[in-house]
Amino acid sequence: MKFLTGLKQSKGGRPAVLALVLLLQASAAVFFVANILNEWSEDGPGAQLWMQTLVTLALILGVILGAMELRRALDHQQDQDATIAKASGEMHSVIQRQFDAWALSRAERDVAYLALKGLDVAEIAQARQAAPGTVRAQLSAIYAKAGISGRAQFAAHFVEDLLAEGLPGDQSL
To answer: Membrane spanning segments where (predicted)?
Structure first.
């Protein structure tokens, strides 16, 4: 069942729940088709059998359209995941180029990257197995090389480029 491929990679349980509902509907459609074929061969066509046939055809159409929509949703989710991965890679390249421009040492790069990820001084110190004072000194050196005064400006330096385009109602702040 092609429409079920990609469910394992999907985030959250919504696609799996939709696939389960689709499977239940398909099972019901198979049951109703078998029932109609059985009644058709035994009793011949009647008004009630024609109505059951129409309802069953509507159910089959719903299963087909549901499968197509689920497949489209999974494809869209994969496209979004790929876009996010690409943007993440590009952002990493932008950060590394800026670190090169500032001539950060390897240790300063590590500290700067952890600071951008939102870790505080104690967490950076623990992650790098360094003293908090060392991390504070490295952050001060990073800020000096970047020509900024603190963590908020440091993070804003990178976020500003992301927000430079596409702001709704941008008044060129």
So the answer is: 16-37, 49-68
